[in-house]
Amino acid sequence: NNIQGFIRGIPKAELHMHIEGCIEPDMMFKLAERNGIQLRWDSPEELRAAYEFNDLQSFLTLYFEGCKVLVREQDFYDVTYDYLAKAHEENVVRAELFIGPQSFTENGTPLVELMDGVLGAIRDAEKAFGISAGVIISTHRHRSEADALEMLDAIMRWQDRILGIGMGGAEIPNPPSKFVNYFRTCRERGFRTCIHAGEEGPADYVRQAVELLKVDRIDHGNSCLSDPELVAELVEKQIALTVCPVSNLKLNVVSSLEDHPLRRLLDAGLQVTVNSDDPPYFGAYVNENLLQCQAALNLSVDEIVTLARNSIVGSFLPSQEVTKLT
Ligand code: HPA
Ligand code: ZN
């Protein structure tokens, strides 16, 4: 009906999507064959049927296994380009994509292959579709701070082409406080920063991210609601939350979308955005996330407009570009 067409048509940004979490099962098999890798599923259908998760860790185990098919520059190019083509169809005008290089360099892939593939696909998709896109380097919180600092040094040669630095992986027991030096170094080198926090972790992890790491954006952030003073601080500092509702549902962060905190986050005045996280794994790209939330929470047209506007305002675009798009 009307609101569904409105959701599909409205220009939006996607700020929380992992390239290595966006390998469609057909692509997984194509890349495995190209690289001589034996998968433990017999068909793309069988692989898709394996996308059943209990929690973040059960997802991460499969996600890191899937990373093994991304080896050469062309592999990174193909996955990134396919996502941007799909995003363009969904009227995503701005896409800020995470990639976690540690998953690939540990298997012997040179960083230059990863960066050339991702940046090449972004350049070509920008030309082909008029979409605006960039990459955020996401380091792993289950590894050490020294490992993160080593990756930071390695990516410096691409500094001018990187939007910012993020962090993902197993949230508990790896609080933001583990990475104070790393995030300070990122900021000193001029990078914007964000971190996954408050997905499975408590409000205190979100507080640490804001107060100790001084990040510009929080990825997820759901659990902040249990700390009203923290909510006030997030509102005051205009820190965007990149919420991923269907991901939350599939990883049992919420028991149903009807129970999802999205509306409560909006009502608190937070700069909430809706994102897909790892769309093939969770069965929903960004428009499907918005459609399912609209149906479950009875979101109004005004609320959809707010979410789309927040996504543009919350992006790492320069302010004059934001003004043009809002
Ligand atoms: N959380 C933590 N790490 C991740 C996620 C997530 O939702 N998606 C991909 N890596
Ligand atoms: Zn994520």
Description:
- It holds the Pfam family A_deaminase.
- Keywords: Hydrolase, Metal-binding, Nucleotide metabolism, Zinc.
- The record marks 220 as: Important for catalytic activity.
- The structure is a single chain.
- The protein has 326 residues and is α/β, with parallel strands linked by helices.
- It has a single domain (2-316), classed as Metal-dependent hydrolases (TIM Barrel, Alpha-Beta Barrel), CATH 3.20.20.140.
- 49% of the residues lie in helices and 15% in strands.
- Strands 1-2-3-4-5-6-7-8 form an eight-stranded parallel sheet.
- The longest helix has 19 residues, at 111-129.
- The protein is globular and about 50 Å long.
- The mean pLDDT is 98.
- Bound molecules: hypoxanthine and zinc ion.
- Hypoxanthine is lined by residues 18, 21, 56, 63, 168-169, 196, 199, 247, 277-278.
Gist of the model:
It holds the Pfam family A_deaminase. With 326 residues, the chain is an alpha/beta fold. It has 17 helices and 8 strands.
Helix % is: 40-55%
Bound molecules: hypoxanthine, zinc ion
Number of domains: 1
Give the strand order of the largest sheet, numbering strands 1, 2, ... along the chain: 1-2-3-4-5-6-7-8
Please state the structural category: alpha/beta
Number of strands: 8
CATH topology: TIM Barrel
